[in-house]
Structures are given as structure tokens and as C-alpha cells.
Automatic annotation (TrEMBL), chain A:
InterPro entries: Cation/H_exchanger_CPA1, Cation/H_exchanger_TM, NaH_exchanger, NHE_CaM-bd
Protein name: Sodium/hydrogen exchanger
GO cellular component, one term: plasma membrane
Species the sequence originates in: Astyanax mexicanus
Membrane topology listed for this record: Multi-pass membrane protein
Length: 810, 194
């Protein structure tokens, strides 16, 4: 084998060598190419100069062949290493935004390159940027936009982004033009169009770093979502303006007709983009309805459709960013219901990865370019640029807020406005747009220099200082993370009340509008776009999806986490000591809260909030929630075993006992419920079971190993022949306990019934699984949800204390 | 609007209502028109059936509780002033109201809004939200399939979070305290049309 490999390698190398050498006359006989005219020899017909024999080259270096992909790969790797490096020292990332660090590394590398007189690869051309680097960034932002807050604030977001960007561009442009008239600065040759062009470039806000800070300080949701949305949409506006002004800049004279056409084009472009995006989003959703058999390429559809939307929009010169944004927003909701769990995860990860890579590359490149290109530095122009940019942004925010505040239910106060305007950092897109300015612009170098200056200024100075300032100013905060369950329930109730009273008064407001839309959605759109559209299965389906996804993530972390073992023991002891006392109060895992929030948030407008808010642009969310949900899932399975006494009489309306399918009594319904839960839960768990089982074994230490084994095995036992989610859904649809095909699940279903009927002492029923788990033995008859608690509780030891399930008897 | 004054004249105690509820006369007139529109049989008062006839309201998960809030103490007839008084809870809070120490809180004060919401939980009017009552409301709001044990654990957690005096029920004070960070005005206000 080796010799064959070596032979192949040699052959390849020699081909390469030959390819390289072919332009020069070779000393070997040239290969004969058979054609109809007979073999043609490619060598010149003169006698060969040197009759010496040249041997097959053993090692050749063929750099030009791989130069471009090779260098790109190296760059990406380098930038990624830089990112790894930042997180080594945790404190840095708190105070210094990642973009700063990236630019710094870029500067260092640029310095190195400069000292060896290398040029950075000329890869950042206009087409490369617009066609390859921009779409992932935008898709990333759009896909992870928290939809519900976004739609509540969509008016404000659009207002700030569209009008705000226009305001900034035109204001700064005109001011700079005024400054240009000053002879002392020596920039008189920049005309108005070019100034406007430049101004539009630098008004593209990219508060990536700021968003991370906002999230860390739990800033109030309104501010957060407006900043997020503004950055996204103003990219769209900036690109449109850029193209517009670019075109205009080439015209020698601009008259009123051009201006009017410009404005018209602006709207056309924006709305056209949105329409495009919607169409593609729906088509993508529709396609995924049929992808059940081709799960592996499901993510591909998402990417292809959004990219296609982008490209087609570029083709027609309408706003491609708007297209891809609306496509992503529309698609997300429907597609995430249709695709399998794995595809869902893949999609998210890949989008995040691509977006991060793209952005990292651009910032890195920025750093390098700063050192290596020749700059044209003009103190006056640049300082004025920075000054005007800041002033106009601040002014713009204030004025716009004043106008829009009356229309908002929660108006922005001055601190919010300050946060918004100070958080207006410039970033990747600004740089790329400046870098790819056409060369017809005379002062292109100046523009590039000025852009780099303003980016570095905002990113470093504002980016680093915003955190202390925000904290000092005590901007209004929202408790972003899980608030109390109380708050959630009561606010839901209040929203329902308010919506009801509005209906009573015959009024419309955004509550009822949303309701109407969701009802329309449920009735028509979902039927078309979503496979197996059964609205009643939403929560359970969501649970499974979330928990599957998160279970996989949990297992990833668990296997690599060392602290699991000690916590096992500590929890062991804790459990032992607590077993004896029946505390009436039970402690809830933080996981339960997450899950509770999930349940609760399902109901107001029957909106499914699929993605958790991946609000930090540089990372996917941490998996604490994930872990918690998994644990909670297991505990809910466990709980379903417990006999409990029903408070049967409270509900006045038995027909509206919602957790039961209709027409069943409480007992059978309960069994159905738990069975359904079993069948739903376990095949799903089994699904991830299969995928991750190989992993923990080689890596885990003994206690953990037995943990996972104990966990996995009982789940194995609970294996039903169903192994795909959709089949589970199909099972759900039949709703009846008899649907399980495997006998194991039947026996399983009998087990809870038995426990159930033994009633009386809930603590007994509960002790059994606990007793089993305590020994960490091979699987007890049905359930060992405990181990996952422990295993996953490890890394978050203080937070995830095991729940002590003492059901309340009433 | 010319019709306002004519409508107003039909309303008994219009001035008193305006004073008490803080609605303007335009608001009141519109509400009266709505009242009459709902009162299909022209009885002069509203009955629960009139409320149930509102289509959108019927789709609300807690519609019966809302209706029950209007028809408190079991009465079957709702006259206009009671109608308006209850609706007054939903007026946005006036931030620039001068606080006179002796006058009672206006109907739309934060406390009263909270009391209104509280009473939707507390059907038996014992001043506490018991676990059962909480479960009922949860069941009503969580229309989709949530398993019973999930509901119960949610209810348990809710009580656990809020219950400071360990009586396994949520009193109004505890309720209020748990919501102290929430912007009630935003949640429980309607901009009444003129």
C-alpha cells in the first residue's frame, strides 16, 4: 500500500512538475497527443539542446498552484488562533472587545509583513467582499435576531436605521463638503458627490462589540433590540446609498431628476429586496416540507436559498441585504419546524461559523492593511470626519428619538439615547466598502485612511470605554435572563387580560394585530409550509428539539469536563441525607425554570420562539440552559412516574382539561400522557443516545463513565423502534397508547401504570428510581434520570443542585 | 365632535364618572357607544352572554375570568357606570398627577391594576392565590399540551418563589412584591380611542 501511495504521490508531483515545466522546452520526450491528424508533439521541431536525461523529480514545489487557497486558509487559521488566544485570559475579553483584539493582531501581523516587505494578499476585491464575505455576516445577524422583540420594535428599528442612516450620511457629507472648501486643508478637489459617498460609508454602524457589552450588563431589551436591528438594517441602507452615490459620483453634473430618481430607486430597492426575501423564505420553507428523506442536505437548502436570494437581488441591483435578511427571518420560523434536530443545529452552527469567519477576516485584514498600505493622512479632514460623525450620530439619535417616542409604549430616555449613539461603532462593512471604492475616485487613499482612522477610533476608544460608562450611568436594565416564573406567568396573564379588554372595547392595538396575524398564520400559512402541521404538538415537539439539541451539547461538554466526578459524590451524599426527611418544599433546578419559561412563552400568541437569543455575536450561547433543559427533561420523565393525587374537582370545566386529550378520564389520560411522554421522549433521547454513545466512553473517567453508561443504557432499554423524530410525530398524531410498535415500550408503559396504581405513597414510588441510581448500577426497570442530573450538574455544580422531588400531597 | 355631547347627555352621572375614572368626555362617549353596540337586545345593561358574543374575546384563553371580573359578586347585569369603572383600570397611569394625600388612589393606579389582576386569580376571594387557583389559571393559559406534572411543578415553583410567609399561597402583598420590577403600566394599559 505504501509503495503504491508513494508511487501515486510521485506521479502527482511529477505531473505538477510537468505542468510547471511545460512552457519551457523539456529534455524528455514530450507526451504524444493523439489527434486525427496524428500525434502532435508539443516540443519545438529543432533538435533538443541537451541530450542528457533528467530524472523524475522526487520533490517539487508548486506554490503558485495552491497559492490562493493556501493563503486564504492560513489567514483564516491565523485569525482563528487569535480568537482562541483571546479567551485564554478571560479578563481581557470583558474589558476589551474582541474586535479590538482582532485588529491588534492584524496590526501586529501587518507590522511583521511590512518589515519583510510583503504585501497582503490582494483578495479583498469588491466582488469577493460583496459576494462572499458580506452574505455570511448578514445572514448571521439576521438569523439570530430575537424575533419577538424585533417585531414589537420593528417600527423603531426601521426608523432609526433608514432615516438615521440617511440623516447621518447627508449631514456628514454636507458638512465635510463644507470643510473641503477650506483651502488650508488641501482637499478642495473632493466634490459633493464624493463627500456624500464617503459619508454614507462611514455611517454604517456595526456595534458588534457594543452588543456584547449590552448583553453582559443586561441592558434593557428595547435598547438592545434597537441597536441590533439598527445595525442590521443600516447595512442595507448603507450599501444602497453607497451604490447610489457611487453611480452619482461618476456623473459630472447632478440635477433634480437624478435626485428624484435616486430617492425613488432607494425605495424600490428596499422594498424589492424585502419582497424577494419573503418569496425566497416561503419557497425555502415549502421545500423543507419535503425533505424528510434527505435529511443530510437539509441545511444546504437553507444556505442555498438565502444565498440565491442574495445573488438574485444583486443581479437585479436591488438591496441584496434586505433580501437575505427577510429571507432568513421568514425562513427561520417555518424551517425550524420542518427540519430535523440535527439539521437545525447544523444550520445554526454553520451560519454562526461562516459569519464569524467572515467578520474575523475583515477585521484582521483591516489591521494588516493599516500598516502595509501607503496612507494619505490629512489631519484636518480626518479629524473633522470623526468629529462630524460623532456629532451627527448623537444629534440624529436625539432628534429621531424625540419623534418616535410618542409612538412607543416604552419611550427611550436620555441614557438609552446616549447608549445608542455612543454605541455606534464602525466596523467590518465600513472598512470593506471603503477598501473597495472604485479607483476612479481620486482621493481614494485618503478615504481609506480616514475610514481606518474612524474605525480604529470608535472600536478602540468607544468600544473599550462603553462598558464602564454604561455601568456608571446605570442605564435601565431588563432582566434578560430568566426572570422569575412568577413574573412570567403574571405578565402573561396581564397581557391576556389587556388583549381581552381591548377586544371588549373594540379596539385595535399591537396585541390584537399580532393575534390576528398569528391566527391567519396558523390557519393558512402553516398548513402550506409546514409538514405535519398539528399545532397541538408544538410544545412537546419544541421540547424534544431543544432538549435533543442541548443534550448533544451537554454530552460534548460533559465528556471533557473533569469536575463531574467530585460533584457526583457530593450530590450522592446530599441525596442520601435528604432522602430521610420529607421536605414539603422542593427545590427546582435552574433547568426547570428554563423549561417553564419555555412552556409559558408558548402561549400568548401561539408564537413559537425557536432560537434562543444568540445575542453575543461572537459566540453561540453557552450551554448552561441547554444542560438545564436536559436535566429538566429527565426529571419530568421521572416525575411522570410518580403517583400523584389528582385534585380532580377544582376544574369546573372538565372538557377543557387541556392536558388531556378529549374524552378521556383523568387516570387513563394521565397514563396516556406519561406514555406519550415516554415514547416521545425516549426515541428522541435514543436518537441522541445513538449519536453520542461512542463519545463518552473513550474519554471519560470511571465515575462519569458509569454515569453516562447508566444513563444511556436505560434509555437504550426504552428504545422503541422509532428512531426519527418525524416518526415520533407520527406517533403523536395517533394519540393513543397502543401505537408503540415494540413490546419494550409496552412493558414500559405498564411499569408506570403499576407505579401509578400503587399510589398512596408517592415517596415510595420516588425512592425506587433514586435507590437504583444511587448504586449507579445497570439500569433499573425504567428510569434513571438521576445520573444525567449529576453528570450534567457537574460543571455547574453550585447552580444545579438536584431537585428533591417530593410531590405535594393535597 | 358634535355627537359627543349628545352621547354624553344619554349617560347618567357623566360628570361623576369622568371625575372618578379620569376618562375624558370623548373617551366616555365612545365607551358608551361601545356599550350600546354590545347590548344587542337594548336592555340597558350587559349580561355575560353579550360578552361571550364578542368573537375575539371568546378566543382569549382567560375570557371567562375576564368576564367574571366585570360581573363580580355574581350579578348578571352590568350597567354602564360599572362597565366604565372597571375599564378605568386600564387607563395609562398619569405620571404627572399631583398626589393629594387624602384622596384615594385613582382607579388606574398601579396598585389597583395589580389588584385587578390579582382578583382574576383569586376566584374565591379569600385574598390569597392558592395552589389550585394558580393551577386553574395556568391550565387555562397553557392551552397546548402541557403535561399535568409540568403544570404542577410550575405552580409549585411559582408559589415557592413568591411565598414569603410560607402559607403555600400567594397573598396580594407577595403578588405585588414579585412584580415590583415589572412595568405594569405597559402591560395593563390600553390607549383608549376617542
Amino acid at each position: 500500500m505504501d509503495r503504491i501511495d508513494a508511487g501515486i504521490l510521485l506521479a502527482l508531483l511529477s505531473f505538477g512538475a510537468n505542468a510547471e515545466d511545460s512552457p519551457k522546452p523539456t529534455t524528455t520526450k514530450p507526451p504524444a497527443k493523439p489527434t486525427e491528424h496524428g500525434p502532435i508533439y508539443t516540443a519545438p521541431p529543432q533538435p533538443l539542446p541537451e541530450p542528457e536525461k533528467s530524472y523524475l523529480p522526487l520533490f517539487t514545489l508548486n506554490y503558485p498552484r495552491v497559492q490562493i487557497p493556501f493563503e486564504i486558509t492560513l489567514w483564516v487559521l491565523l485569525a482563528s488562533f487569535a480568537k482562541i488566544g483571546f479567551h485564554v485570559y478571560h479578563k481581557i475579553t470583558i474589558w476589551v472587545p474582541e474586535t479590538c483584539l482582532l485588529i491588534s493582531i492584524g496590526l501586529i501581523v501587518g507590522a511583521i509583513m511590512h518589515s519583510v516587505h510583503e504585501q497582503p494578499p490582494a483578495v479583498l476585491t469588491s466582488s469577493v467582499f460583496f459576494l462572499y464575505m458580506l452574505p455570511p455576516i448578514v445572514l448571521d445577524s439576521a438569523y439570530f435576531m430575537p424575533t419577538q422583540p424585533f417585531f414589537e420594535n420593528v417600527g423603531t428599528v426601521l426608523w432609526f436605521s433608514i432615516v438615521g442612516t440617511l440623516w447621518n450620511s447627508i449631514g456628514v457629507g454636507i458638512c465635510l463638503y463644507g470643510v473641503c472648501q477650506i483651502p488650508a486643508l488641501g482637499v478642495q478637489d473632493i466634490n459633493l458627490q464624493e463627500n456624500l459617498l464617503f459619508a454614507s460609508i462611514i455611517s454604517a454602524v456595526d456595534p458588534v462589540a457594543v452588543l456584547a457589552v449590552f448583553e453582559d450588563v443586561n441592558i434593557n431589551e428595547q435598547l438592545y433590540i434597537v441597536a441590533f436591528g439598527e445595525s442590521l438594517f443600516n447595512d442595507a441602507v448603507t450599501v444602497v446609498l453607497y451604490n447610489l452615490f457611487n453611480h452619482v459620483a461618476e456623473l459630472p453634473v447632478v440635477d433634480a431628476a437624478d435626485v428624484f430618481l435616486g430617492v425613488l430607486r432607494f425605495f424600490l430597492v428596499g422594498l424589492g429586496g424585502m419582497l424577494f426575501g419573503l418569496v425566497f423564505g416561503f419557497v425555502a420553507a415549502f421545500t423543507t416540507r419535503f425533505t424528510r428523506k434527505v435529511r443530510e442536505i437539509e441545511p444546504l437548502f437553507i444556505f442555498m436559498y438565502s444565498y440565491l436570494a442574495y445573488l438574485l437581488a444583486e443581479l437585479l441591483s436591488i438591496s441584496s441585504i434586505m433580501a437575505i435578511v427577510t429571507c432568513a427571518l421568514t425562513m427561520k420560523y417555518y424551517v425550524e419546524e420542518n427540519v430535523s434536530q440535527r439539521s437545525c443545529t447544523t444550520i445554526r452552527h454553520v451560519i454562526k461559523m461562516l459569519g464569524t469567519v467572515s467578520e474575523t477576516l475583515i477585521f484582521f485584514f483591516l489591521g494588516v492593511v493599516t500598516i502595509t498600505t501607503d496612507h494619505e493622512w490629512n489631519w484636518g479632514y480626518i479629524l473633522f470626519t470623526i468629529l462630524f460623525a460623532q456629532i451627527w450620530r448623537g444629534l440624529g439619535i436625539v432628534v429621531l428619538t424625540q419623534i418616535i417616542n410618542p409612538f412607543r409604549t416604552i419611550p427611550f430616555n436620555f441614557k438609552d439615547q446616549f447608549g445608542l449613539s455612543y454605541g455606534g461603532l464602525r466596523g467590518a462593512i465600513t472598512f470593506a466598502l471603503a477598501y473597495t471604492l472604485p479607483n476612479t475616485i481620486i482621493r481614494k487613499k485618503l478615504f481609506i485612511t480616514a475610514t481606518i482612522a474612524i474605525i480604529i477610533f470608535t472600536v478602540f476608544i468607544q468600544g473599550i470605554s462603553i462598558r464602564p460608562i454604561i455601568e456608571l450611568m446605570n442605564v435601565r436594565k431588563t432582566n434578560w435572563k430568566l426572570g422569575t416564573i412568577n413574573v412570567e406567568i403574571h405578565t402573561r396573564l396581564m397581557e391576556h387580560i389587556t388583549a381581552g379588554v381591548e377586544d371588549l372595547c373594540g379596539q385595535w392595538s399591537h396585541h390584537s394585530l399580532k393575534d390576528k396575524f398569528m391566527r391567519f398564520n396558523n390557519r393558512f400559512i402553516r398548513k402550506i409550509l409546514i409538514r405535519d402541521n398539528r399545532p397541538e404538538s408544538s410544545i412537546v415537539a419544541l421540547y424534544k428539539k431543544l432538549e435533543l439539541q442541548n443534550a448533544m451539547e451537554v454530552l460534548d461538554t460533559i465528556s471533557g469536563d473533569i469536575s463531574a466526578a467530585p460533584s457526583l459524590i457530593s450530590m450522592h451524599e446530599e441525596k442520601a441525607s435528604n432522602k430521610s426527611s420529607f421536605k414539603p418544599k422542593r427545590t427546582f433546578l435552574a433547568s426547570d425554570l428554563t423549561a417553564m419559561h419555555e412552556i409559558l412563552s408558548k402561549n400568548m400568541y401561539k408564537i413559537r420562539e425557536r432560537t434562543m437569543s444568540y445575542t453575543n455575536k461572537h459566540t453561540l450561547p453557552n450551554d448552561s440552559r441547554a444542560r438545564e433543559i436536559l436535566v429538566r427533561r429527565h426529571t419530568s420523565i421521572r416525575r411522570s412516574l410518580r403517583a400523584r393525587s389528582f385534585q380532580g374537582s377544582e376544574s369546573a370545566r372538565s372538557q377543557k382539561y387541556f392536558s388531556l386529550p378529549l374524552g378521556q378520564s383523568l387516570d387513563t389520560g394521565y397514563a396516556t400522557e406519561s406514555i406519550r411522554l415516554n415514547a416521545d421522549g425516549d426515541p428522541a433521547l435514543e436518537l441522541h443516545n445513538r449519536s453520542v454513545r461512542p463519545k463518552p466512553r473513550p474519554r471519560s473517567k470511571q465515575p462519569r463513565f458509569s454515569t453516562t453508561r447508566a444513563r444511556l443504557d436505560p434509555l437504550q432499554e426504552l428504545h422503541s423502534t422509532v428512531n426519527m423524530e418525524d416518526e415520533v410525530r407520527a406517533e403523536e398524531s395517533s394519540h393513543r397508547p397502543s401505537r408503540q410498535s415494540s413490546s419494550s415500550s409496552n412493558s414500559r408503559s405498564r411499569a408506570p401504570l403499576q407505579r401509578h396504581s400503587s399510589l398512596g405513597t408517592p415517596s415510595v414510588g420516588e425512592d425506587d428510581p433514586e435507590g437504583d441510581e444511587q448504586q449507579l448500577e445497570s439500569p433499573p426497570p425504567a428510569w434513571t434520570p438521576e445520573p444525567p442530573d449529576r453528570g450534567s450538574g457537574g460543571p455547574r455544580n453550585p447552580l444545579l443542585r438536584r431537585a428533591q422531588w417530593k410531590p405535594q400531597d393535597k | 365632535m358634535g355627537s359627543t355631547s349628545s352621547t354624553l347627555s344619554k349617560i347618567p352621572n357623566a360628570d361623576e364618572l369622568i371625575q372618578e375614572t379620569g376618562f375624558t368626555s370623548a373617551h366616555l362617549a365612545r365607551l358608551f357607544e361601545r356599550f350600546e353596540a354590545l347590548d344587542k337586545d337594548k336592555k340597558g345593561y350587559l349580561s355575560p352572554q353579550d360578552f361571550e358574543a364578542i368573537k375575539e374575546l371568546a378566543l382569549n384563553p382567560i375570557c371567562d375570568r375576564i368576564i367574571g371580573a366585570f360581573f363580580s359578586s355574581g350579578q348578571e347585569m352590568l350597567d354602564f357606570s360599572s362597565f366604565v369603572r372597571i375599564l378605568a383600570h386600564f387607563r395609562p397611569i398619569d405620571n404627572n398627577r399631583t398626589k393629594e394625600p387624602n384622596s384615594p388612589d385613582p382607579i388606574n393606579s398601579r396598585i389597583n391594576k395589580l389588584k385587578f389582576a390579582f382578583q382574576l386569580y383569586d376566584q374565591d376571594k379569600d385574598g390569597k392565590i392558592s395552589r389550585n387557583e394558580l393551577l386553574q389559571v395556568l391550565r387555562a393559559m397553557l392551552e397546548k399540551q402541557v403535561t399535568e406534572e409540568q403544570l404542577e411543578s410550575i405552580a409549585d415553583r411559582t408559589i415557592q418563589e413568591a411565598d414569603l410567609d410560607r402559607d403555600d399561597a400567594i397573598s396580594f402583598e407577595e403578588f405585588r412584591k414579585s412584580l415590583e420590577k415589572v412595568n405594569i403600566d405597559h402591560k395593563m394599559s390600553i390607549r383608549f380611542l376617542r
